[in-house]
């Protein structure tokens, strides 16, 4: 691995970080970006509409550039000292990095790495957040974060959440958040609706209030689960009711958050809620909810087909086992972790 000269000798100032996709991995880039900011670099981030809300929710980024704004892109050609491509396999991100910066940093191992001046090996046996921070090694920065970076929210969001809880007549401190959906790239990486209903029923029996989270597109999926629960008085489907900052605020009210390997799981970990991540198609070594208090449940170590996802290579193999790896996570395992 080659490294740049020390910062003072080459006067590196402006850095472009490229992060185009996914809520979860956008959150996982924040420790790396904040470290750059704390070190004295000026950071812009190139985004799409999918990743943009994450970066709008922190205050240590100089400028957010939407890749759909062609005029902004043209104005930035070769305006950056360095670009850092955090995308693991997309060709367009490596091209944009080469176009917009004098030098570029990215992951080695696939054909597009010929566009990078400095290459870092993507280690798929360590956490993605650490892999992102490893990109800084070319800048002579060695850093492993202790925790993720919480998204910022204000009084407006706090008031919205208080109104929501009042409307739902929730005054309990025993609130469990459950996210049942997954990204469209691998919809088999979640539990079956019957198991979610079983978990929820047992939590309600223990006097917990349960909130089902998600986007508006996940509302009907949640309703199918609600319909399987006999006594749903303290069960509420709030999918689609909150934006990202409001959802971030709500998470701080949870005593625990349960989710498969998806963006809201990483958000919950970043916001400091005890987070239980459910794994099967992917492995916790790569994408566990980051932080000492968080738990990963993975029962598929003996299955040859797991893991069937590797984002570094763009591998999203279609499941032929009807989500067997997720079936190996028992209701009792999840409940035991909540009650500890």
TrEMBL record:
Stored Pfam families: Glyco_transf_9
Top-level division of the source organism's lineage: Archaea
Keywords: Glycosyltransferase, Transferase
Gene Ontology annotations for the cellular component aspect, listed alphabetically: cytosol
EC code(s) of this entry: 2.4.-.-
InterPro entries to which the protein is assigned, alphabetical: Glyco_trans_9 (IPR002201), LPS_LOS_Heptosyltrfase (IPR051199)
MF terms in GO: ADP-heptose-lipopolysaccharide heptosyltransferase activity
Keyword Transferase attached: yes
Name of the molecule in the record: Heptosyltransferase-2
Native source species: Methanococcus maripaludis (Methanococcus deltae)
Lineage of producing organism: Archaea, Methanobacteriati, Methanobacteriota, Methanomada group, Methanococci
